[in-house]
What we know:
The protein is α+β, with helices and mostly antiparallel strands. It has two helices and eight strands; from the N terminus they run αβββββαβββ. The protein has helices at 2-21, 93-96, and strands at residues 33-34, 43-51, 55-56, 60-62, 67-88, 106-108, 112-118, 123-143. Strands 1, 2, 3, 4, 5, 6, 7 and 8 form an eight-stranded antiparallel beta sheet that branches. The protein starts with a helix and ends with a strand. 21% of the residues are buried.
Amino acid sequence: MIRKLVVLGFAAILLLGLAGCGGTGGSSPSTAQPAAQSGTGNWVTVTILSGTADKQGPVFALSGAPLQLTCKVLSTSGAVSLSVYTLLEGNSLADSQGTALGTPVLTMNGAGTKTITFARPANNYYLDVTSANCSWQVTLEERH
Length: 144
């Protein structure tokens, strides 16, 4: 009986530990939040970017309204690393290291889909995606 309780206790601890470690990566800055389930207005697509390697998207204008970023890691081979940055037009990721805009708004370390909401002031931006060992698609939407 004691042996059975010890085994069940160990299994429970193992499951709790795995649940805490799971997922497909984290989001970095404090402005990133889980996707909002309620609110007013519709999400309107700003840009869609996809690839299998590092890539910069075209410049787009943001109004300062809430943003929703959805990232899908479609296939993987080896250790996956994917980071999505929103950078001001004219800036580069190399110029922005160590600043708030040099911090990824979303990171993933495996296959799956992740959606976050965040904010950026009205201005012109572009997406910069760094990736390794995966194919991916990123969709940025703004609430209107």
